[in-house]
Amino acid sequence: MSEVFDIFTGSIVDLCNTSGFLNADWRQIAMILVSCVLMYLAIVKQFEPLLLLPISFGMMLANLPLAGLGAHTEGGLLYYLYQGVSLGIYPPLIFLGIGAMTDFGPLIANPKSFLLGAAAQGGIFFTFVGAIALGFNPQEAGSIAIIGGADGPTAIYTASTLLRGGDNASMIGSIAVAAYSYMALVPLIQPPIMRALTTKKERAVVMDQLRPVSRTEKVIFPIVVTLVVSFMVPSAASLVGMLMFGNLLKESGVCDRLVKTATNELMNIITIFLGVTVGATTTYDVFLTWATIKIVVLGLLAFCLGTACGVLFGKLMYIFSGGKVNPLIGSAGVSAVPMAARVSQKVGAETDPTNFLLMHAMGPNVAGVIGSAVAAGVLISILG
Amino acid sequence: MDLENFGWSATWATVLTGFVVVFLALIILVFLFWAFGRIMDNINGANRPKPAERPAEPVPPAPPKAPAASAPRVVKFAADGVSDDVIAAITAAVSAILAEEGDGKSYVVRSVKRVRSNRRAWAKAGIEENTRPF
Fold first, then answer.
1. Residue span of the structural domain in which A318 resides
2. What is the DSSP code (8-state) at residue B67?
3. What ipTM score was computed for the predicted complex, to two decimals?
4. Which of A115, A138, A378 sits opposite B26 (nearest CB)?
5. Using one digit for the tens of pLDDT, what is the confidence trace for A111-155?
6. What pTM did the predictor assign?
7. How many CB atoms lie within 10 A of CB A228?
8. Chain A CB within 8 Å of residue B23 CB
9. A338-351 residue pLDDT tens
């Protein structure tokens, strides 16, 4: 009987010694608390819940003591799922779904919107300078700067491509968390900048109605964009190509089943894998560092500069068009579809409630997606 | 580019390259789709039947002399210049409000003003319908 009791107590002691309670580092507890805060923001405040919730839960899983669920811990489930991120597979597949859901009609109707989508990428390149100044190496600086594109899949794709195989590959998690957090905070970050850089007269501009776009134009658009961008910047081809492939499926009108799969099942599966595994890269030893704080600050700077560049270019178009362009639509050039376009509409409606800027802002908004993919391609080809 | 010795010159060169390539790619797309839009407009304009090209319709036989009762309707105006139709519409709106408010309250219409808007009601309804998905 005493032997049974000894084995029993020994087992209990072993279990205690190998439990999370006795092996937890305080930094793991801190990260679990951070993940709980993010889960709160996703569930209660509904900040980008479709991505923030998987990311935050992945963060919690990666920081469980002795569980070995970090994305960089070889052999665990999340390590194998993470290969889709590190090999650059998930972001283009997400772009496929986004393309199948996006209507490029407002951009085709007003092609000048492309310029606003290009101008808003200024945030990426100016932040690149800031990151170099703060001591990051060129690949790290490019990965951080792309947060200014306000496009989660593009940020993850660029960071995973530039940092692949390096000692700093774990930085991808911090970049993704910063990118998605700021995308969720677009309605708070952008309006003060938009109001500060525009006059009331400029904000009140009512733009001309967009011309109707034929189906032929919508079908030709994805083919032409893929060819032009891929010939100019081949490293942007996987992102732009999949975005435009998804859009062609939608606009062709003959692939309803594929469109449904791309926009629902495939998109949802990839979103779960991407979110959980990116969250699982944020283990305490790589996340609770000064580098993360610098990334968070530089990411905010990138967002603000991108918004400012878009609005300032919008003001330029306001002047050259003789007051026909409302500069507020320029801020939508930072991607973050359709949140940034909604913000343009909301800020414009503050000045004139009958002014509908939403469709006009959707042009620069979707142009920003293409612009940030091109910017990512440039960074990858120079720094990769 | 030497990534090991990435100095300020290389940094600013990267920024300049980035701006030029992004703008160049998107400016090419602007011109392509601007030109394509013009072509499509011309094609659509050419396909659209012009009033002069419509086949001449046979001239209808002269209508019999209309009796006095079926003469074209003349819009009647009240003494103050407001048509009967407008008065009917205002009356219907007022009675609808009175019905919602319930009995026991009396109202006096002192003036009627047109609400000015940048768009017509149908245009606003159309915009709201089209922008709802976003």
1. 91-383
2. P
3. 0.87
4. A115
5. 999 999 999 999 999 999 999 999 999 999 999 999 998 888 999
6. 0.78
7. 18
8. yes
9. 889 999 999 999 99
